[in-house]
Design goal:
By secondary structure, the protein is α+β, with helices and mostly antiparallel strands. The chain has one domain: 2-Layer Sandwich (Alpha-D-Glucose-1,6-Bisphosphate, Chain A, domain 4). It is built from 7 helices and 8 strands. A hairpin with a 3-residue loop joins strand 3 and strand 4. Helix 1 crosses helix 2 and helix 6 packs across helix 7. The protein starts with a helix and ends with a helix.
């Protein structure tokens, strides 16, 4: 096994160990990633511990350098394509190692309209950590991780969210299960990292209009 293939296997094995007991095996996860799927490793774990809010951790394999995926994720202009319900996005401060961003997200009448500022700590082309600064959320925390392997760039996105206003847990879970895979598939397409033309068309169809 080549070194980068071994690295991918080790990363996936560690993620599978942290996932729920019902999660797929490491070999299944690798096969699904290589087939172009967005793989959910965890969904809604924090809601069970805290009684409110939701969380998810998902992975996707992108046939593009980490730099290309990074450029999509940090772009406010492109964020309107991959974040469901994004109405406003403004970079308030930005440097190589950190940024502050204001966003407004409205996903319909069943969900609150989120208006918030978050800070991202950045280690270029390897990791982005996101934390809430202010807004109508009790908690928002997440991360992006990028690992270049022989099979492509493994992108892992994790998000924990707890609205200030009460929201039925099933709605949070549904949004996470539906929106995060679409987000990751769209990011892959915008980074020109879909492995086939058919997958590229499928990924683009999951972007926001």
């Amino acid at each position: 096994m080549r070194n980068r293939d071994l690295l991918l296997a080790v990363i996936l094995a560690g993620c599978a160990a942290r996932a729920s007991p019902a999660a797929a095996s490491d070999s299944d996860v690798q096969a699904r990633l290589r087939a172009g799927e967005v793989v959910a490793l965890e969904v809604d774990e924090s809601a069970g511990r805290e009684g409110r809010g939701g969380a998810a951790r998902m992975q996707v394999l992108v046939q593009a350098p980490a730099r290309a995926v990074w450029a999509v994720i940090v772009s406010c202009e492109l964020a309107y394509r991959f974040i469901a319900g994004l109405r406003e996005c403004e970079v308030l401060e930005e440097s190589a190692g950190r940024a502050r961003v204001h966003q407004v997200v409205d996903q319909g009448w069943l969900m609150p309209r989120y208006d918030f500022v978050f800070e991202s700590q950045r280690r270029p082309y390897e990791w982005i950590g996101v934390s809430l600064v202010e807004g109508n959320l009790d908690r928002m925390q997440g991360s992006w991780r990028f690992v270049e392997t022989a099979a492509g760039t493994l992108v892992e996105h994790e998000l924990q969210i707890r609205p200030a206003a009460p929201v039925p847990r099933f709605l949070l879970r549904r949004n996470l299960e539906r929106n995060m895979p679409d987000l990751l598939a769209c990011v892959r397409a915008l980074a020109d990292g879909s492995s086939t033309e058919a997958l590229r068309r499928s990924d683009l169809a999951r972007c926001q209009r």
